[in-house]
Amino acid sequence: MSDAVKIYHNPRCSKSRDTLSLLKANGIDPEVVLYLETPPDAATLRQLLKMAGMVSARELMPPEGGSV
Fold it and tell me: Of the candidates 40, 35, 30, which has an alpha carbon nearest to the alpha carbon of residue 3?
């Protein structure tokens, strides 16, 4: 596994901006992917799910009627 850091970034999102700032403040210069301009393809999404230990994107969603 590579030590390179990649962030899927939305500059209009405060959490995304905060994350990018935190990385840079700690000396990490990540590869920034502006996902709204260049969305990941299905294969990339599957790879990201696998890296997160998930099988389905449904695992990212809160249960019906519930919250995360």
Answer: 30
What is the DSSP annotation of 6-47? Answer: EEEE-TT-HHHHHHHHHHHHTT--PEEEETTTS---HHHHHH
Copy the structure tokens of residue 14: 């405060």
pTM, two decimal places: 0.76
Q: Any idea which residues carry the catalytic annotation?
A: 13
Q: In angstroms, how far is CA 28 from the centroid of its own chain?
A: 16
CA-nearest of 28, 35, 29, 30 to 11 is 35
* pLDDT for residue 57 is more than 70: yes
